[in-house]
Write a structure and sequence with these properties.
The complex is a heterodimer of chains A (180) and B (633). By secondary structure, chain A is mainly alpha-helical. Chain A is built from eight helices and no strands. The chains are: A mainly alpha (180), B alpha+beta (633). The interface between A and B is large, with 40 and 55 residues.
C-alpha cells in the first residue's frame, strides 16, 4: 500500500476540509493549503529516506493541484460539475446562443482594433471591463451551483465563462506584445 | 548496544550532530559559498580573506586549471583558455550565444550543448562550472573541518530545465551532493525576509553579471510564496560592459582588434562601469598591442544614454510578472535589489521610478543570495530544529509543453505553477499498427515550436499494434522541488509501460557524465574512489539517523515484527559502515530503504492527519511568530 488511499484520493474540497461549494472562503483555503504544505513539502523531508522523499513529492504535487483547481473560479466550477458527474461537454457542445456569439465577436474586434492601434491604455481598460463582467458571471454561477442547483444551466454558464477567460488571456498577451 | 538505543522509547537517538551544509551562489561573474555557523549565516572567505571567487577558469597545458583571481589575472594574456562568464553557456547550444564573434573562445560546432576547445582539451560548460564548484567545496570543507552533507546551489529563477539540469550535473562532477536548486531571487527574499521579519508582497529585482530575474513574493506567517517570476537569462551586467566596449570602439575609431586587445578593453569597460557608481566621470586609458592609444572619458550621462535600452529591457519582464501575479505597482510593499549590477545609478533610478518607491539596498547585493542559500541549506540538512519553521513555495518560470501537429506547442504545465507539480495528457496513434510515438518536449511561452526551447525528444516504443486512435498513451510531466522535469509514459489499454529514450537537446547524457567522472578519477587530483566511499558512508549515516528519529517520533506505527526487521537492517548497515566496502554499504542501505517503505507511507499519512486535526489557529500563529523571532541569519 502506497498511501492511505482515503486521504490521497479524497476530493479536493475534503482535502482542505471545506464544504463542496462554489462560494468559498478564499482566506480559509489559503490557510489550509499552507498548513498542509508545511507538513508535507519536500523541503521538510530533504534528509529523510528515499521513500519518504518520494511520498512527500507526490503529496505536495497532489495538494498543489487541488489548491490550483479550487483557487480559480472557472476550474472550481468545472470541478464541482465533474464531482456531480455532469459533463460540461466543452468539446462537442460548442453550440452557443447567437447573442452570446455576437457579443464575443464584438469583444474580439475591440481587442484586435486597440491592439493594432497600439493603445496599451485601452487594452487595460478592456481588461478591467472584462474583469467586472466576470465577477457578475461568477455570482450567477454561484446561484446555479449553490443556491438553486441547476446543473444544466450551470454547465452552460461555465462554457460561456471559458470563452471569456480565454479572451482575458488574449488581452493580457496583447498587452505583453505591445510592451515588447 | 546500538539496537537497544533505538528500541528504548523516549530516549533520544545519537546526540544531535550539526550537519555541514553550505549555500553556493554560482554567479556569472563571481561565486560565493556561505554556511550557518552558531545560528548566523556567513560567507566563507579564502585563505587570504577574500569572500568572492571570480567565476573564471584557466586551463593549462598539463590538463590542470587555475580558478578565480589567478585565472582572472591571466585573462588578457591567455584569453582562449581562460573561460569567464561560463554560466551564460550552461545548457545552451553554440547558436544561442549572443556576440559570439566578440568572444575569444574556440567554439566546437558539434550538436547539442556547446563545447570549448582549450589547451587542456574539449570542455563543456558543465565541466568548467564543476571546477568552480570544486574550489568552493574544498574551501568550505577546509573551513568547516569535514565533508559536506550537501549544498543548496542557486540558479536564476528564469533558468530553463536544460540550464538547471546542467547546474546539477556540474555539482555532481564536483562531488557535491545537491540538497536543492534554489532560485536566486527567492534566496535573496529568504535572507531579506528573515532578517527584517517582513510581511506582505515584495518584488525582488535581481540583475547579475549575465542574468536578469524578477520575482514577486508574498511573505506571510513564515511562508515565502513566489507568486510570479520572469526575466531574461541572457541579460546582465556583462551587457553593460559590452555597450561601453562598443562605444569605445566607435569613439576611438579603432581598427579590428586582436583577441588580447578586445579582452583588455572589455576589462577597462567593466572598470569604468564600476567607477561610475561613485563618480560622475570615468577616465579610460589603454595602450593596445597594435600600438593604438585609447584616452577617453565616459560620463554618467553618456553611460545612461548608451545603456537606456538595456535598462528598459528589464522593466518589461517586471510588468509581465506583476500581471501574472494579478497585482498592481501600488500593492508591492518593497523592492529588494540583488546582484552587483543593481549598483548602477541608472538601474536604481529606473526601478525606483517604476515602483514609485526607493528600492531596498540594506543587504550586500553580492552576498545576499549566498546567505539565503546557506540558510535554506541549514534547514534542509536538518539543523533548523526548534524555532526555524519557515517554508518556501516556488514556481516554474516557463511553460512546459509538447510539440503537436504542424509544429505547434500544446502547453501542459503553465508558467508560474507552484512546484512540485504534475500534469498528465493522453495521446493516441494516428496510423494502424503504429508501435512507436515520437514526443518532443519544449519550454517557453510562444505558439510555435521553433520559437520555444527544445528540452528533449523521446520515443515511446513497444506500443502493441492496434487500429489508429485505439491506443491510449498517457504522458506524465512531473516537475520536482528543484524545478526539474521528469517525463514518463504508459500505454493505458494494455498497461504496457513503454520504454522511453530521452535525448536531452542541450544537456549531457548520463553516459557522458559517467565518462567525465571516470576521467576525473584517473586524474588523481581528487581521490574519487575514497571520496565515493566517504559519500556512501555519509549517506548511510544520514539514513540511519533519519530512521532513528522517525522511530523516535512515530515508533507506534510499526508492528513488533516490522520494528525488529528494521532494527536488524540498521545494525547490518552499521556493521557495513565499519568496513570500506562501498557495495556492501549500498546493499545494506537498499535493505533498510525497502523495509522502511511502508513506514514512510504511514508517517506521511500521519502528517496529513495532523494537518487536519484542527490545531487551533492561535496555536499556529504563536508557532510562526516564534519562528520569525527565532535566531537565524
Amino acid at each position: 500500500m502506497e498511501f492511505n488511499a482515503e486521504h490521497f484520493n479524497a476530493d479536493h474540497f475534503s482535502l482542505f476540509d471545506l464544504p463542496p461549494a462554489f462560494r468559498l472562503d478564499a482566506a480559509l483555503l489559503d490557510r489550509r493549503y499552507l498548513e498542509l504544505q508545511s507538513q508535507i513539502h519536500p523541503d521538510r523531508f530533504a534528509s529523510a529516506s528515499e521513500a519518504e522523499r518520494r511520498h512527500s513529492l507526490q503529496w505536495a504535487t497532489r495538494v498543489n493541484e487541488a489548491y490550483q483547481t479550487l483557487k480559480k473560479p472557472l476550474s472550481r466550477a468545472k470541478y464541482l460539475l465533474h464531482m456531480a458527474a455532469h459533463d460540461i461537454g466543452s468539446e462537442n457542445n460548442t453550440l452557443m446562443p447567437v447573442d452570446f456569439l455576437i457579443e464575443q465577436m464584438e469583444w474580439r474586434e475591440a481587442v484586435a482594433e486597440v491592439r493594432a492601434a497600439g493603445e496599451h491604455h485601452e487594452l487595460e481598460h478592456l481588461h478591467h471591463r472584462l474583469k467586472r463582467d466576470l465577477l457578475e458571471r461568477y455570482e450567477e454561477i454561484a446561484m446555479l451551483l449553490d443556491d438553486q442547483p441547476d446543473l444544466e444551466q450551470a454547465a452552460d454558464r461555465v462554457r460561456r465563462l471559458m470563452f471569456l477567460e480565454k479572451l482575458l488571456v488574449e488581452i493580457d498577451e496583447a498587452m505583453a506584445a505591445l510592451e515588447e | 548496544m546500538a539496537l537497544l538505543q533505538i528500541a528504548e522509547p523516549g530516549e533520544s537517538a545519537a546526540p544531535h550532530q550539526h550537519r555541514l551544509a553550505v549555500g553556493i551562489d554560482l554567479g556569472t561573474t563571481n561565486s560565493l559559498v556561505a554556511t550557518v555557523r552558531s545560528g548566523l549565516a556567513v560567507v566563507i572567505s579564502d585563505e587570504l580573506g577574500r569572500p568572492l571567487l571570480p567565476s573564471v577558469v584557466r586551463y593549462l597545458p598539463d590538463g590542470n586549471c587555475d580558478v578565480g583571481y589567478e585565472a582572472q589575472a591571466r585573462q588578457a594574456i591567455d584569453p582562449r583558455n581562460t573561460i569567464a562568464s561560463v554560466k551564460r553557456f550552461m545548457g545552451r547550444g553554440p547558436q544561442d550565444i549572443a556576440h559570439r564573434e566578440a568572444l575569444p573562445y574556440l567554439f566546437d560546432d558539434g550538436p547539442g550543448m556547446l563545447r570549448l576547445n582549450t589547451v587542456a582539451g574539449r570542455k563543456s560548460p558543465v565541466e568548467v562550472s564543476a571546477e568552480i564548484l570544486r574550489v568552493l567545496r574544498l574551501r568550505a570543507e577546509a573551513s568547516l573541518g569535514g565533508p559536506l552533507v550537501g549544498a543548496v546551489i542557486t540558479v536564476p529563477a528564469y533558468f530553463d530545465d536544460a540550464q538547471r539540469q546542467a547546474t546539477k550535473d556540474a555539482a555532481r562532477l564536483a562531488g557535491l551532493p545537491v540538497l536543492r536548486l534554489l532560485n536566486e531571487p527567492t534566496a535573496a527574499a529568504v535572507a531579506y525576509g528573515l532578517d527584517n521579519a517582513s510581511e506582505g508582497t515584495y518584488a525582488v529585482y535581481d540583475l547579475g553579471g549575465g542574468t536578469f530575474d524578477i520575482s514577486i513574493l508574498r511573505l506571510s506567517r513564515g511562508i515565502f510564496e513566489v507568486l510570479a517570476t520572469g526575466g531574461d537569462s541572457a541579460l546582465g551586467g556583462d551587457d553593460f560592459d559590452h555597450r561601453i566596449f562598443c562605444w569605445l570602439l566607435e569613439a576611438a575609431q579603432l581598427k579590428p582588434l586582436s583577441v588580447e586587445d578586445a579582452r583588455m578593453l572589455l576589462t577597462r569597460a567593466r572598470e569604468a562601469k564600476e567607477y561610475l557608481t561613485f563618480h560622475g566621470v570615468a577616465p579610460i586609458n589603454a595602450r593596445l598591442n597594435s600600438g593604438e592609444v585609447v584616452d577617453l572619458t565616459l560620463t554618467t550621462e553618456i553611460f545612461a544614454e548608451i545603456t537606456q535600452t538595456l535598462v528598459a529591457k528589464t522593466i518589461q519582464p517586471v510588468k509581465k510578472a506583476l500581471r501574472d501575479a494579478g497585482l498592481s505597482v501600488a500593492e508591492v510593499k518593497g523592492v529588494v535589489m540583488v546582484g552587483g549590477a543593481t549598483r548602477m545609478p541608472q538601474i536604481q533610478r529606473a526601478v525606483g521610478d517604476f515602483f514609485r518607491q526607493e528600492p531596498l539596498n540594506n543587504l550586500d547585493p553580492d552576498k545576499v543570495v549566498a546567505i539565503g542559500a546557506a540558510t535554506q541549506a541549514n534547514l534542509l540538512a536538518g539543523n533548523g530544529l526548534g524555532g526555524d519553521n519557515w517554508l518556501l513555495l516556488d514556481v516554474i518560470p516557463l511553460s512546459l509543453g509538447l510539440e503537436t501537429m504542424g509544429g505547434l506547442v500544446e502547453k501542459i504545465i503553465p508558467r508560474n505553477s507552484t512546484i512540485p507539480t504534475a500534469r498528465a495528457q493522453e495521446f493516441t496513434t494516428f496510423r494502424d499498427g503504429q508501435t512507436a510515438l515520437a514526443v518532443h518536449v519544449v519550454q517557453g511561452e510562444r505558439e510555435l515550436v521553433s520559437d520555444c526551447r527544445s528540452l528533449a525528444r523521446f520515443e515511446l516504443r513497444g506500443i502493441p499494434p492496434m487500429v489508429a486512435g485505439a491506443a491510449r498513451i498517457r504522458v506524465t510531466f512531473q516537475v520536482d522541488a528543484d524545478g526539474l522535469l521528469a517525463v514518463t509514459a504508459r500505454e493505458q489499454t494494455v498497461g504496457v509501460e513503454a520504454s522511453i529514450v530521452v535525448k536531452p537537446s542541450y544537456g549531457l547524457s548520463d553516459d557522458e557524465i559517467a565518462g567525465m567522472l571516470k576521467d576525473s578519477m584517473l586524474h588523481v587530483r581528487d581521490d574519487a574512489l575514497r571520496r565515493a566511499l566517504k559519500e556512501s558512508q555519509t549517506d548511510a549515516q544520514r539514513l540511519i539517523e533519519a530512521v532513528r528519529s522517525a522511530i523516535d517520533t512515530d515508533g507506534e506505527l510499526l508492528s513488533v515484527e516490522e520494528r525488529s526487521r528494521i532494527e536488524h537492517d540498521v545494525s547490518n548497515l552499521q556493521a557495513a559502515l565499519l568496513g570500506d566496502n562501498r557495495r556492501q554499504i549500498m546493499l545494506a542501505m537498499d535493505d533498510l530503504e525497502a523495509d522502511t517503505k511502508d513506514f514512510a507511507a504511514r508517517r506521511m499519512d500521519k502528517s496529513i492527519r495532523r494537518a487536519f486535526s484542527g490545531r487551533h489557529i492561535n496555536e499556529l500563529d504563536s508557532e510562526v511568530a516564534a519562528a520569525r523571532t527565532g535566531e537565524h541569519a
